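Fig. S4 source data, part A: sequence.
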Amino acid sequence: MLALLAIFFAALLAFCRASPIPGDAILQKRAYTGKATFYSVGLGACGQQNVDTDPVVSIPIGLFGNAYPSPDCNKRVTITNTANGRVAHGTVLDECPTCGPSDLDLSKLLFLQLADNLGEGLVPVTWSFDS
């Protein structure tokens, strides 16, 4: 009986043995594709007063969520203008009630890092959280 129990546990151990995760199974950062616009910043949904020269990112309400403050507050974001290749970095400090599910609203400073001027109004972007 003891030998049968030992065989059972040996088989169970061999079956449950940990194995490494294949390299292609590692999760990649989620990249969003959408549009970026700009707005005049102020008191953000993360609870702090912002000015147009701050690198403010407002994310869609669907991502921001209902918690206060949002778990995404103060997260760094990398944004790429897909039309010209320019890259900018900002911080989530607000929510965007009018944004589509992958769109961003940016401070003027941040928008101008991606576009030649504010007259462009809207730029195509991809973006992701840095961590």
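Fig. S4 source data, part B ends here. The CA atoms of residues 64 and 70 lie 6 Å apart.
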